[in-house]
Write a structure and sequence with these properties.
The protein is mainly α. It has one domain. The protein is built from 4 helices and no strands. Helix 1 runs antiparallel to helix 2. The longest helix has 24 residues.
Length: 114
């Protein structure tokens, strides 16, 4: 799990164009939100590797994933297609929101109990 969040966090800086379009329009300063999300994923990913911070980092992942739900919903609202970027069938957006996201939450939740 730590590797997943480290990789995702770094990707916010390597490919911001993948993230900026799925930040809902009603949120201000998309660039700052993207940077903070990337930093959070990197910091929490590192925290998951350290025994003393593993549980608190897992809680951070749970809250972070909850905070990301509006972006998943927004991706569906915009037709699961980013102009000049990723375009998927709409069911893929729903699958991410209804299946993958809860599985990631459950995975993080398991680590909050250690």
């Amino acid at each position: 799990m730590a590797f997943l969040y480290l990789l995702a966090g770094v990707n916010h800086f390597v490919s911001p164009e993948s993230y900026l379009p799925i930040i809902p329009d009603y949120l201000p300063n998309h660039e700052l939100i993207n940077i903070l999300a990337g930093l959070a994923e990197i910091i929490l990913g590192i925290g998951l590797l350290i025994p003393k911070t593993k549980v608190i980092s897992a809680w951070g992942v749970v809250f972070m994933l909850i905070a990301f739900i509006p972006s998943h919903a927004y991706f569906i609202q915009i037709g699961s297609c980013i102009e000049g970027g990723i375009c998927t069938p709409e069911w893929v957006g729903w699958f991410r929101l209804i299946v993958i996201h809860p599985l990631l939450l459950a995975w993080a939740w398991i680590y909050t109990k250690e």
